[in-house]
């Protein structure tokens, strides 16, 4: 992995738009104060593209006994009488 670009606070304030463009392309940027790194600007994860309701129909199987608990667990949760 390539090393992150580093800017001091003054440069970061002056070139914020350029820094955000770099981050938007996947780069990480480090902001330093008095030569010491204090913050890292990283890209956000992309949004998950949903294909719509029911897109997993037929790909997931939930067995009929899914909600049935073994007696010992049901008893531990006070579900047996």
UniProtKB/TrEMBL annotation:
SUPFAM superfamilies: YefM-like (SSF143120). InterPro entries: Antitoxin_Phd/YefM (IPR006442), phD-YefM_TA_antitoxins (IPR051416), YefM-like_sf (IPR036165). Gene3D superfamilies: YefM-like domain. Pfam families: PhdYeFM_antitox. It comes from the Bacteria. Belongs to the phD/YefM antitoxin family. Antitoxin component of a type II toxin-antitoxin (TA) system. PANTHER family: ANTITOXIN VAPB49-RELATED-RELATED. NCBIfam families: phd_fam. This is Antitoxin. It comes from Streptomyces hebeiensis.
């Amino acid at each position: 992995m390539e090393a992150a670009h580093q800017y001091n606070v003054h440069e970061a304030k002056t070139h914020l738009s350029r820094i955000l463009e770099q981050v938007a392309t996947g780069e990480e940027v480090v902001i330093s104060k008095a030569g010491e790194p204090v913050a890292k600007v990283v890209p956000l994860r992309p949004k998950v593209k949903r294909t719509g309701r029911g897109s997993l129909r037929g790909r997931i199987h939930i067995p009929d006994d899914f909600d049935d608990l073994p007696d010992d667990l049901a008893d531990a949760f006070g579900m047996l009488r």
